[in-house]
Amino acid sequence: MATFRVTILVAAPPERVFATWTDLDRFPEWIGGVTSVSDRVGSIDQAGSRYTVKFGRMASPTEILAVERSWHIRTRFGNAILKGESDVRFAAEGGGTRIHQEFMTRGFISAIFGRIFAMGSYRGSFRGELETFRRLVEREVAEPGQT
Prior knowledge:
alpha+beta, 4 helices, 27% helix
């Protein structure tokens, strides 16, 4: 198992950041390669809920392991190239929200792909996705009337 950590500060309150993070319909806006989310079972606010993230024809079944609205969400995900768990914490900091995300991969192939996604800040990398997410949320906070 390999572990990768990324963090970023978003100039928005934790409630807003968490709400956008857990809006499954918005995943394609900030997670590289996501084409849709399907097979939703349960509420994003409850452990045991499930959904499938689609990357074209590749699917990544995901289960919510733990959730505390506005502060924490832990999921288990998996497909042929990347599987493991994601633990995300949201902390109020200086009028904004610090996001701490930790990926724990399972298996040799996942560890290799995790390392690739952990390197750099290109779109599709762990850091690149956080940066895209930050810009998305901050733009909406700055432009009243956005969702």
